[in-house]
Structure formats: C-alpha cells, structure tokens
Amino acid sequence: MRTIDALRAAADGYRYLDEGGHVYLDFTGAGLPARAQLRAHAARVTAGCYGNPHSVSPASAASGELVERARRRVLAHFDADPAQYAVVFTANATGACRLVGEAYPFAPGTRLVLTLDNHNSVNGLREYARSRGADTVYVPLRAPLLGVDEDAMDAVLADPPPGGGLLAYPAQSNFSGVRHSLAWITRAKAAGWDVLLDAAAYVPANRLELSELRPDFVAVSWYKVFGYPTGVGCLLARRDALARLRRPWFSGGTIHVASAQGQWHHMADGEAAFEDGTVNYLSIPDVEVGLDWVESVGIDAIHRHVTALTGQLLTGLAGLRHSSGAPLARVYGPPGTDGRGGTVALNLLDPSGAVIDERIVARDSAARTISLRTGCFCNPGTGEAAFAIDRRTLDGAVRTATGTIDDYLGRLGLPSGGAVRVSLGLPSNRADVTAFLDFAAATYRDRTPDPAGLSPRLVC
Which terminus in the chain has less CB density within 10 A, N or C? Predict the structure, then answer.
C-alpha cells in the first residue's frame, strides 16, 4: 500500500496539483479525483456499450448490472445490511434531503427538529414541514466552540410530539468543521424520533458504520468524497423508513404502472420509487471505482492524515501575529483537533483587530493560485452563532434592509460578509498548509488592505 504522500506525487494519483502549481484548500466544497479514477471511467465507457437500464436489451443489462454493483459497494462501505438499508442514487446530498422532505409524513402534531448548525439543504426541510402544519424547532449552538447546546438537545429529544417527528443534523459542520455527536441517533430513535443525518462533510475522512448507528436516512455527495463523478450522490435509507415516505408525484422509472385516462398509478418498490427518470448510468459505476480507491488508501489512514494537517493549520494560525503581538487570525470553533474535522473557518485581522473583508482574501489568494472558500458557506445558523447575531437583530434586519446582501450585512452590523474556509482532504500535504500560512503572513501582517474596487456581494 502506497503512502498518502506517495499518492500526491504519483502519475496515477494527484501529481497534477504540483504540476499546475495548485494549492487546493476547498475539500469541503469538493474532493479531488485521482487520475486513476478518471482513466478507469474512460476505459470503461470506451470499451463497452451501455444503454438506458429501463430495458432488457444487452446494452441496458450491462448498465443495470454496473448500477446494482455500485449499490452493493455503497452498502458495504457503510457496513449497511442490504436487508435493512436501500441506496437511492441522487444528484447530490441536497437531492437526498429533498426526497426526504417532500415525502416525509409531516402533519399538524408532528415536529421537525434542526440544529442551528445545518447546511441550507437541510434548513430547507422546514418549508415542507411548515406547508403541512408541522412545527419546526431549532436547537441552539454554544459559542465560542460552536457545538450544539447539549442541554437543549436533551430537552428536545425527551419530549417527542404525539405524532412523531424528524431530527435532522450534520455529522460534521460544513462551516466550522465541528463534529456533532452520533450518539444522538440512538437516543433520538429510542425516544421515537426519525433521524436524517447529513454526512456530506463527514464521510470524506471518517468511518461511518450504519450497522451500529442505524439512522433512518443518510445524505451523501460522492464528489465530496473522491472528486469524481460529480452529479452523483445518494440517500441511504432504512427500508422501513423508506416505506413510510409518500411522494407527492411520480415520474418515469418510479412506477410499476400508470394510467393516463384512468388517472391512477402504482409506485415501484424500494429505491426505484425514488429515482426519478433515468439514473446517471454512465457515472454511477464510478462510485465503485472511487470507493475502491479510498479503500486502497484506508479511511482510517485518511482520517489520521487530515487530522494531523488540521493540527498543523490550527497551530500555525494561532501563531500568526502582527509585529505588535496582536493576532492576525480569528478561528471559529474548537482551537484544536478534538471534536472537529478538517474544515477550519476563520477571519484574518488587520493590525487594529478589524476583520479583513473576505472578498479581499478571496482576490489575493486566487492571485497566488490558492483555492479556498469565502462567504457564509450556505450555513446561516452557524454564521449567526459565530458572529453573535441575536434573533432580535435578525428580525430587524429583515424588516428594514433594502434587499441587497451588503445592505443586509450593514443592518446586522457585520464587519464582513462571512469567513474564510480552509479545508483539507486526502491529497493535501504539509506544503499546502505552509503555503496558506505564508500567504496570510506575507500579505496581511502589519497591513490594512484597501477594500476599494471590490465587487458587491451577489450571493452568500
């Protein structure tokens, strides 16, 4: 087995990063593929004939077998019993969450529980709940570490509504990198809750075994795990939970039979009822290739590698100082690697302690071929907690802002539109971390950069 450092330099690995002079630090946004994965895709599609799997032709059968092999491989990766869990292929984790939201039996007397730390793909579930008369409750975070308030979570889980409900939360924050307790799954289910686990930011560098945890639903985006294919995710769902979902519509591939004139239909069984239209049959087999690649490295080795680099990054950020001794960086979440993954949100500070506009950092880092992420990362709740924005201020900003993002931020009194996110993955190395730390020191130490010429913020 080759070491991770060897894979970074290998022709079939990630050599293209150093060949192109890239410092890639956005693994929470997207993983990167090894060249071996891309070559495997090209070899397969050029050597065979694959057709729409909704048929019995030779080309269809070839596609269907590869898709089913990928399903089995996903279940094996998560140690999920095929008799208990189904794999529904989707476009991404967002698509997986939407399937649950649109079909979950929300009704008056039921409840949706969300942690304040959630991607908007999970926050959006509240609109399905609201439209059907269900209550939505947010469990707050505790600053400055940005973990969930355990007392508040205990109180919520101990008081399920008569009609039941759904708890939805991330295993790891896409904003702060905080890892939230997986023990909540068992506790929630024992109290009568269903559980949706957003695992998109967690599974690229952590083992997740469903034979032990047994959540009802798990959302995954495969491009975040190994970069290729894009446009393929999945919903892992307990078969008994999947059977309780009621879809508000049907489409090609999701039904056994339908009548136009009679206006009736019968849904297909299991995962087929949730895979709208034709699945991405030319790319889904690449999930198996990607998982084989991860297995060849070892998920535990990846975890140790990412944790070590995260520790290097956090130590380096803590040591960044202006000549006056004032800190150059403010990190959100835990200061060390305990309780966090390889995602670090921060703001860089000028000599007076003022936040440097994240758009300046985005502009300057791009000029140094450093790829990172800036903004609020589609996670408003964690941003509100990190920047200590209370509910009254938020309500007032909504009533008085003129509509632009910059106006909204001004009403909130924020010094910047979000944070800088540095995230690490399998191909990352110590040189990448050093490159970012050197960039921050060389560009901003003892300097107050000029914000002139920055474009207005169009999205968060």
Answer: N
d(CA 209, CA 200): 15
Question: 1-29 burial by CB neighbour count: b if 16+ within 10 A, else e?
Answer: eeebeebbeeeebbbebeeeebbbbbbbb
Amino acid, res. 188: A
Q: Which residue has the tokens 């947010």?
A: 138
Decide if pLDDT at 260 tops 90.
Answer: no
pLDDT tens digits, one per residue of 315-365? 999 999 999 999 999 999 999 999 999 999 999 999 999 999 999 999 999
DSSP 457: P
Amino acid identity for residue 48 in this structure: G
Residue 134: exposure state from Cβ atoms within 10 A (0-12, 13-18, ≥19) = buried
Which tens digit of pLDDT belongs to each residue from 374-413? 988 888 888 888 887 767 666 665 555 556 666 666 666 6
What six digits make up the tokens of 92? 């991404």
The residue assigned the tokens 């996110």 is: 421
pLDDT at 220 over 90: yes
3-state secondary structure of 213: helix
Strands (E), 37-163: 85-90, 111-115, 135-139, 141-142, 147-148
Place 150 in a pLDDT band, splitting at 50, 70 and 90: very high
pLDDT band at 314 (very low <50, low <70, confident <90, very high): very high
Mind giving me the DSSP string for 405-447? HHHHHHHHT-SSSSEEEEE--TT--HHHHHHHHHHHHHHHTT-
Percentage of the residues of the chain whose pLDDT score is greater than 90: 79
Average pLDDT over residues 436-454: 94
Given 49, 97, 378, 460, which residue is catalytic? 378
* CA-to-CA separations, 25 to 17, 111, 292, 384, 424, in angstroms, rounded: 11, 38, 24, 24, 6
Active-site annotation holds for 378: yes
Using CA atoms, how far apart are residues 240 and 122, in angstroms rounded to an integer? 22
Kind and range of the H or E run holding 237: strand 233-238
Give 86's contacts (C-beta < 8 A, 6+ positions apart). 236, 237, 238, 239, 242, 270, 271
What DSSP state is assigned to residue 321? B
Token output for 41: 């895709």
Q: C-alpha distances in angstroms, 51 versus 64, 104, 124, 288?
A: 9, 33, 35, 19
Q: Locate 147 and state its tokens.
A: 């973990």
